[in-house]
């Protein structure tokens, strides 16, 4: 028992497997990274370095539940460093998405056009 | 899923940031939302450890294939139609009676996606990444695998360029088994090295 308790700080996560992606945004962040690499925006070594820098920061959860949060942070930093998407642009647009979601009735698809503070004349691509 | 009460949609901050990136990248023509869906579907449903199990089972029954797998795993695995999309090289490490192989990525979470799909949560978590190298025997015991003290454990640290596939030893009593039946004995964890290929049932 004591041994078990002593081990618990560094114990491996339970053997039961969580799904690969716990939430849809994790799958999307993963897939965007794969797609951007396919497009040649960065090499996989560059990506591994970026991800490594995030996951080795102190405070990473020992059960790994925050793995895709690190993944997303790595992707944002890489895109910012490449001059593709700056942090302030992402901040602004993310806030717009949150407002849009809040203004969208339950059960309806969330569209950026639904952001009540949206200043542009018309919606962007609807994908 | 639940429609028993009315409420507005909410995006948590991470989901909102992902949407923001998607919007920017789509507008810049760097990603196509339809292609993103295809990638997600591929990794959720089409690529998985069944691929690796077929590689291992073939190596068990086909000495020529086993030799090729040992010499050039990238080519051998590619010959079955499984190719990595990050341009990574594969190396197959064969368990023997004397040596057990264990794969980790201490750097981040490099993993042989083309043959094993995406890694389990524990593979990506800090305890496994740090302890697999320091105390592989103890880690294996936590997975329920106690190896004889005489068995040497080799730990392979994956990188973006080089990923490893463990080829477990073929269970005894399976000499006349078909490749297909053998593949059912090969689990994902056996190909990471945290367990052995299953005993015949």
Commentary on this structure:
The complex is a heterodimer of chains A (127) and B (201). Chain A has two domains: 22-85, no CATH class; 86-127, no CATH class. In chain A, 51% of the residues lie in helices and 0% in strands. Chain A contains five helices and no strands. In chain A, α2 packs parallel to α4 and α3 packs across α4. Chain A is globular. Chain B is globular and about 55 Å long. In chain B, α3 crosses α4. The model of chain B is unreliable at 1-6 (pLDDT under 50). By secondary structure, chain B is α/β, with parallel strands linked by helices. Classes of the chains: A mainly alpha (127), B alpha/beta (201). At the A-B interface, α2, α3, α4 and α5 of A face α1, α2, α7 and α8 of B.
Task: Give a nutshell description of this structure.
The complex is a heterodimer of chains A (127) and B (201). Chain A is mainly alpha-helical and 127 residues long. Chain A has 5 helices and no strands.
**Number of contiguous helices of chain B:** 11
Give me the Rg of chain A, rounded.
19 Å
Q: What order do the helices and strands of chain B follow?
A: HHHHHEEHHHHEEHH
The strand count of chain B comes to 4
Average pLDDT confidence of chain B is 91
Q: Average pLDDT of chain A, to the nearest integer?
A: 81
Rounded to the nearest angstrom, the distance between the terminal CA atoms of chain A is 55 Å
Shape of chain B: globular
Order of strands across the widest beta sheet of chain B? 1-4
Give the CA-CA distance, first to last residue of chain B: 40 Å
Task: Tell me the number of structural domains of chain A.
Answer: 2
Task: Examine the coordinates and then state which fold CATH places here, giving the name of the CATH topology of the largest domain in chain B.
Answer: Nitrile Hydratase, Chain A
Give me the strand/helix succession of chain A.
HHHHH
How would you sum up the global shape of chain A?
globular
Largest chain-chain contact? A-B, 71 and 61 residues
Helix content of chain B: 40-55%
Class from secondary-structure proportions of chain A: mainly alpha
| Proportion of strand residues of chain A | under 5%
Protein name (chain B): nitrile hydratase
Keywords (chain B): Iron, Lyase, Metal-binding
Domain Nitrile hydratase alpha/Thiocyanate hydrolase gamma (chain B): 14-194
Catalytic activity (chain B): an aliphatic primary amide = an aliphatic nitrile + H2O
């Amino acid at each position: 028992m004591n041994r078990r308790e002593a081990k618990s700080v560094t114990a491996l996560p339970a053997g039961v497997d969580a799904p690969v992606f716990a939430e849809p945004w994790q799958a999307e962040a993963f897939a965007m990274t794969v797609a951007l690499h396919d497009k040649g925006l960065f090499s996989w070594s560059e990506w591994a370095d970026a991800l490594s820098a995030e996951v080795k920061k102190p405070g990473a959860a020992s059960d790994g539940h925050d793995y895709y949060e690190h993944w997303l942070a790595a992707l944002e930093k890489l895109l910012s460093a490449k001059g593709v998407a700056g942090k302030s642009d992402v901040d602004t647009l993310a806030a717009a998405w949150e407002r849009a979601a809040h203004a969208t009735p339950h059960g309806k698809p969330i569209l950026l056009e639904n952001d009540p503070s949206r200043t542009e004349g018309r919606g962007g691509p609807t994908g | 899923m639940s429609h028993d009460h009315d409420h507005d949609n909410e995006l948590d901050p991470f989901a909102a940031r992902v949407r923001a990136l998607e919007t920017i990248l789509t507008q810049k023509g760097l990603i196509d939302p339809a292609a993103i869906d295809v990638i997600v579907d591929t990794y959720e449903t089409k690529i998985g450890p069944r691929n690796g199990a077929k590689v291992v089972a073939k190596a068990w029954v086909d000495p020529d294939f086993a030799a090729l797998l040992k010499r050039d795993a990238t080519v051998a695995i590619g010959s079955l139609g499984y190719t990595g999309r990050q341009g990574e090289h594969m190396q197959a490490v064969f368990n023997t009676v004397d040596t057990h192989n264990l794969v980790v990525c201490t750097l981040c979470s490099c993993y042989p996606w083309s043959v094993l799909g995406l890694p389990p949560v524990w593979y990506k978590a800090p305890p496994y990444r740090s302890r697999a190298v320091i105390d592989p025997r103890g880690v294996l015991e936590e997975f329920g695998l106690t190896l004889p003290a005489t068995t040497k454990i080799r730990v392979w640290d994956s990188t973006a360029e080089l990923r490893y596939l463990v080829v477990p030893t073929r269970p005894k009593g399976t000499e006349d088994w078909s490749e297909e039946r053998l593949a059912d004995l090969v689990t994902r964890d056996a190909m990471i090295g945290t367990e052995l290929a299953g005993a015949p049932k």
